[in-house]
Specification:
Number of strands of chain A: 13
Number of helices of chain B: 10
Radius of gyration of chain A: 18 Å
Order of helices and strands of chain A: HEHEEEHEEEEEHEHEEEHH
Number of strands of chain B: 11
Oligomer: heterodimer
Strand order of the largest sheet of chain A: 5-10-11-12-13
Helix content of chain B: 25-40%
Largest sheet of chain B: 8 strands, mixed
Largest interface: A-B, 52 and 53 residues
CATH topology of the largest domain in chain B: Glutaconate Coenzyme A-transferase
Order of helices and strands of chain B: HEHEHEHEHEEEEEHEHEHHH
Distance between the termini of chain B: 28 Å
CATH superfamily of the largest domain in chain B: Glutaconate Coenzyme A-transferase
Distance between the termini of chain A: 5 Å
Radius of gyration of chain B: 19 Å
């Protein structure tokens, strides 16, 4: 369930989409995988506001798609309307991804750790799982290839944000420090946007650090909802910026008129 | 000799214990009519190679046909987990050999190109590689001259690939309209044999008239099984999209074993022909366009 954001004329899903959108820029070249309603809405909103030249390949296939609405799958042809090219997974996508022509990807996991690594494979021991999840799909690939990784979660609680993943399906900053660099990987996770706050990553340790708190959320609440120690920034922690009336109007009427993004809540 | 056959004969040509690669991606373009026929014929001990899959794997697991799933992801996407796959892996009834999408693409390429391995950055730093430390099917290595890290993906042998397409002729020339978008070419190229189900057959002259639009040459295709709506309840872009209602009803039924057994019998395996199956599921437009 998405809830109203105190003092803002919007709900949590909308605040998360707008925050995601503002993190995008004119040189963003993004694509999306499964169950990615918040990022897809964010790419489309950014393109309609401050980043008109942003490139987005719907389902990693349909380049420059401009769908009338977002359906019940973000990995389906229902998102492909208005595309300038339907690309091919083998010949086009993996070359664009591994060569980092695509520079932006967002993933979420059933579990995420302090370094932005994600688990979407199993809960519990691998050989005798309590819950068998779908599997990492392209996470293990794209985590290694894409320089600007964004994470998000609509369920900020200690079950999701854990100290130890049960399985590392996708690489964020790995073990932290220069781990990615040592493996020859470009960039790494930039932000993690949740229903309580926004994290960035402390530049040396590469651990999650509070970047902003959503209205009426305290740093203590974030720490209580997080299974690892949350790093605090120097000075006062800002409140996540308020969406403009224009952003909300475009999101509600043009980008996602059927509120498909609520499937993540 | 014409390669056009029936779904029944195509499925009958696949022995128990085969390694079967399933085409399609998530909710898209899976060869569901062929998969249903494998379940109807009560195949056993199949090893499935399904890069990013969902309903196809779940039907075969529900039918008790599967020994092992080689995959990167099995789910119903925004519509939830694949219930029978999930339960069978949790109980240990079905083994899983876990990779990621690109690790599997590279293993299939090593197979089709007949090379000892294909390198990729995929999987570096994750727990996926550790699962294969003993078998060495994918292994982290370092390039001597440059010191760069990569993962060496070894050959993945496949007995037969099942893919769905729009049109094929009696020689096996096959067309995906408007062009191939998913990874089906990787399984076709790697497999010892390929069976394609098609929305409709086409005259050979139509391939000669537009050779630039042919997806697979006839010599790569061993059998062509006509099956209108052959990817249902998955999509076959641009002819039809996936049927969310079927996915939701299936998941709902799977919450209770008895209810699911009845659902699976009535809506999936019970109908004798593919046409009967479409009728039972109210896919009433008749012939896809």
């Amino acid at each position: 369930m998405s809830t109203p954001v105190p003092g803002y004329d919007c709900t949590m899903d909308e605040l998360m989409v707008v925050t995601f959108s503002r993190a995008m820029s004119n040189d963003t070249r993004a694509f999306n995988g499964a169950v990615s309603f918040i990022p897809v809405s964010g790419y489309l909103l950014a393109r309609r506001t401050h980043a008109p030249e942003l490139v987005w390949a719907a389902s990693s296939i349909a380049i420059d798609a401009d769908p009338d609405e977002i359906g019940d799958s973000t990995l389906s042809d229902s998102l492909w309307g208005g595309a300038s090219m339907l690309s091919n997974s083998t010949f086009d996508f993996w070359a664009f991804a591994q060569g980092a022509r695509y520079n932006t990807f967002a993933f979420r996991g059933a579990q995420m750790d302090a370094y932005g690594n994600v688990n979407n494979t199993v809960i519990g021991p691998y050989d005798a799982p309590k819950v068998r999840l779908p599997g990492g799909g392209g996470m293990a690939d794209l985590g290694a290839m894409i320089p600007r990784i964004y994470l998000w979660s609509s369920t900020h609680d200690p079950r999701t944000f854990v100290d130890q993943l049960d399985f590392r399906s996708g690489m964020g900053w790995g073990d932290g420090g220069d781990h990615r660099e040592r493996l020859g990987m470009p960039g790494g996770p930039q932000l993690c946007i949740t229903n309580l706050c926004v994290f960035d990553f402390e530049p040396v340790s590469k651990r999650m650090r509070l970047a902003s708190l959503h209205p009426e959320v305290t740093a203590e609440q974030v720490q209580e909802a997080t299974g690892f120690e949350v790093l605090m920034p120097d000075g006062e922690i800002p409140v996540t910026a308020q969406p403009t009336a224009e952003e909300l109007h475009i999101l509600r009427t043009e980008v996602d008129p059927t509120s498909a993004r609520l499937r993540e809540f | 000799m014409s390669k056009i056959t029936t779904l029944e004969q195509a499925a009958a040509s696949i022995p128990n214990g085969s390694t079967v690669a399933i085409g399609g991606m998530s909710m898209n373009s899976a060869p569901m009519a062929l998969v249903r026929e494998l379940v109807r014929q009560e195949k056993k001990d199949l090893e499935l190679v399904a890069i990013v899959s969902g309903m196809a794997v779940d039907w075969l697991v529900a039918g008790g046909c599967v020994r092992r799933v080689v995959s990167g992801l099995v789910s119903f996407e925004g519509l939830g987990l694949a219930p029978n796959f999930r339960a069978a892996v949790q109980s240990g009834q079905v083994a899983i050999e876990e990779y990621s999408e690109h690790l599997l693409v590279c293993r299939l390429q090593a197979q089709s190109h007949d090379l000892p391995f294909i390198p990729t950055k995929a999987g570096l730093g994750t727990d996926v590689l550790g699962l294969h430390a003993a078998s060495g099917t994918v292994r982290e290595e370092k390039d001597g001259p440059t010191g760069e890290h990569y993962v060496a993906c070894t050959r993945l042998p496949v007995d037969v690939a099942l893919v769905h397409a729009h049109e094929a002729d009696q020689r096996g020339n096959t067309r995906v309209n408007p062009k191939l978008m998913w990874l089906d070419n990787e399984v076709v190229n790697a497999a010892g044999r390929t069976v394609v189900s098609v929305e409709r057959t086409a005259e050979t002259a139509t391939f000669a008239a537009e050779p630039e639009r042919t997806t697979y040459p006839g010599f790569m295709i061993d059998a062509v099984a006509p099956a209108p709506w052959g990817a249902y309840p998955c999509s076959c872009f641009p002819d039809y999209s996936h049927d969310s209602e079927f996915f939701m009803a299936y998941s709902q039924a799977a919450r209770d074993r008895e209810t699911f057994t009845q659902f699976f019998q009535e809506r999936v395996v019970g109908p004798e022909t593919w046409e009967d199956f479409l009728a039972v599921n109210s896919v009433t437009a008749g012939v896809s366009t």
